[in-house]
Amino acid sequence: MAEVVIFYVFSAVTLFGALGVILHPNPIICALHLVATMCGIAGLFFGLNAPFIAAVQLMVYAGAVMVLFLFVVMIFNLKQEGKHIFSPGQFTNGLKVLFGGMFAGLLLSSILFKINNFGYLTPDKAAPQFEVKNIAKVMFTDYVFSFEILGLLLLVIPIGTVALSRVRGGTHAK
């Protein structure tokens, strides 16, 4: 019973955080909602007995990537100037309804999938797959080239951020 309560609590945190990302006009507040979403996803991983993936989720996404995102937002000084790519109104409201309907359909199909019990993966069956030893073995043998490319990409991102901030002048206009 406690697992079900934990699942619903972290699902609600994830859902409301994601809605905050979509609906809030301020990019800094959106980034904070995204941190809440990532923390909710990490909690769901803990509920599935995958503590390593949950810890990586917190460190990489909620920690490093969100800090980098906030630095980029603050460097470029994104202010609300009233400029919109699309005029707010029926088009954007229609998109929100469309994506909400798609989300509801996915949620309903996943609930029906669980009720019919087609290949439902329980936490005790999933736990051996998510052990640190098994993940490290696969990551550093089969996917070592992809892992190195990812490290190079993570090195290029801050270099590009610094280069763009120097070109655009950053937030400090002289």
Polypeptide structure, described:
- Helix 1 packs antiparallel against helix 2 (27-47), helix 2 (27-47) packs antiparallel against helix 3 (51-76) and helix 3 (51-76) runs parallel beside helix 7.
- The N and C termini lie far apart (61 Å).
- The protein has seven helices and no strands.
- It has 174 residues and is an all-alpha fold.
- It has a single domain, classed as NADH-ubiquinone/plastoquinone oxidoreductase chain 6, subunit NuoJ (Four Helix Bundle (Hemerythrin (Met), subunit A)).
Mind sketching the topology for me?
Layout: H1 2-23, H2 27-47, H3 51-76, H4 90-116, H5 123-126, H6 132-141, H7 144-168
Helix pairs in contact: 1-2, 2-3, 3-7
Shape descriptor reads globular
CATH superfamily: NADH-ubiquinone/plastoquinone oxidoreductase chain 6, subunit NuoJ
User: What is the mean predicted local confidence, pLDDT?
Assistant: 76
The percent range for helix content is over 70%
Written as H for each helix and E for each strand, in order along the chain, the element string is HHHHHHH
pLDDT below 50 for ≥5 consecutive residues: which ranges? none
* CATH top-level class: Mainly Alpha
Q: What's the number of helices?
A: 7
Q: Nearest-angstrom radius of gyration? A: 20 Å
* Structural class based on helices, strands and sheet pairing: mainly alpha
The number of distinct β-strands equals 0
Second rung of CATH, namely the architecture: Up-down Bundle
CATH topology: Four Helix Bundle (Hemerythrin (Met), subunit A)
Tell me the number of structural domains. 1
Amino- and carboxy-terminal Cα gap: 61 Å
Tell me about the largest β-sheet: none
DSSP strand content? under 5%
